[in-house]
Structure formats: structure tokens, C-alpha cells
Amino acid sequence: MENNVFEQMAKKYDTEERMELAKIIVKEVRPELQNSKSKSLIDYGGGTGLIGLEVSDMVDSVLLVDSSKQMLGVAEEKISRKGITNSKVTYADFTEETHNLKADIVLMSLVLLHIPDTKKILQELFNVLNNGGKLIIIDFDKNDKVYHPKVHNGFSHESLKEVLTEVGFKSTNMKTFYRGNRIFMNKDASMFIASSIK
Fold first, then answer.
1. Labelling 91: which of 44, 63, 145, 154 has CA 20 to 30 A away?
2. How far, in Å, CA of 178 to CA of 158, rounded?
3. What is the mean pLDDT of residues 166-193?
4. pLDDT digits over 29-50, tens only?
5. Residue 3: its pLDDT value, please?
6. Which residue pairs, CB below 8 angstroms and at least 24 apart, start in 129-133?
């Protein structure tokens, strides 16, 4: 990402609002991780670990991948402060370069909206997953009140499912699970969770 805004935000990223929203997301993600004790999870765009580190007890390992070194620095502090032994961070941007990471589960929470080429990143994540692996996406439902030149204004379930199928995912379950006030660019919005199997 050119002049990464997240670099400047890193130290102040974990606001009360963000932490509240993260709790709601974590509660929704945990049931998706039942019986995953032996599985590896990549939290793509994992930032300060607000989601990935909170589900580290449910999987064998967590790798937070982010294109902001500062955000990952905050995550590393949390890992050592909380004594989390199965989580690491790595600096990477899958939109820029290919890599050889592999995982059983890829989680992407409120990240897709920041990536201009939806199909390309979903293809990259499909390639990261082991066969039978699961991609979990949390993001905003399409919202016509939101306009920003650098951000998608959410996603329609039908069109996102279409892209996931084109990329190669066998099945996708998708549902809206939360509506909140001023949670998306200061507008009221709803969030969905999509779970796709490779």
C-alpha cells in the first residue's frame, strides 16, 4: 500500500470502538473454528492482532500477516505481554508479491474493503490454503451511503459468492450477523461473515 496510513495509526489503533467491534467479530468467528485444535491459521491483514490473537486458543498456530510493520510491532508486544506461545507475525503484502505460506484456515476481517482487486487477493488466499481449507471473511455489507476513493463500500453477498466460486472455492456460507451505528466510515452499517471451503 502506498504511504501506508496504518503505519501512522498503529500505536493508537486499538481504540475502545475498535476493541468493541473486535469482540463482536471474535464471538462470530469462534464457532467457525470448532475442532481446529490441530490447524494452522493465517490472519491476513491481522494488524495489531485484535481478532487473530483472541482465537489463538482454538487453533494450533496463528500467523498474523500484515503490510504494516508498526501494526505488527504492536501485535508482537501483545504476544509477549500475554505470553501467547503459538502466535507469530510476518510482514507481507499478498497484493504485491507471491509467497509460499500455507495454512488450513485463512481469516480476513475488515480487510477486503481496503484491497482494490478483490478477485486477485481471493485467488492468492485460495492458493495459500491447504486442500479442504477454510477462508473466513468478515466485512461490511454493500452500503450506498459510504463513498471513499480508496475503499470498497462493502460487498453484495451474491457478487462476492460469485467471485469466490470463480476463484475455485467449492462452497460458501454467508450471513449478516451485526448491525451497528457509525461503524463504517461513520455511517450505520452491517457486517457479514462468509465461510468458504477450498
1. 154
2. 18
3. 97
4. 999 999 999 999 999 999 999 9
5. 54
6. 129/102, 129/103, 129/104, 129/105, 129/198, 130/102, 130/103, 130/104, 130/198, 131/198, 132/104, 132/197, 132/198, 133/103, 133/104, 133/105, 133/106, 133/197, 133/198
Which class is 5-197 in CATH?
Answer: alpha beta
Whole-number pLDDT of residue 1: 43
Q: Is 13 exposed, middle or buried (0-12, 13-18, 19+ CB in 10 A)?
A: middle
118-128 helix and 157-167 helix, angle to the nearest 10 degrees: 50
Degrees to nearest 5, angle at CA 162 with 160 and 166: 115
Least confident span in 11-20, 69-78, 159-168 = 11-20
**At residue 168, what are phi and psi to the nearest 5 degrees?**
130, 0
Taking alpha carbons only, the member of 176, 94, 164, 93 closest to residue 135 is 164
Does the pLDDT of residue 112 top 90, yes or no? yes
Three-class secondary structure of residue 45 per DSSP: coil
Q: Residue range 123-140: average pLDDT?
A: 97
The whole-angstrom separation of Cα 175 and Cα 117 is: 23
DSSP state of 148: B
3-state secondary structure of 177: strand
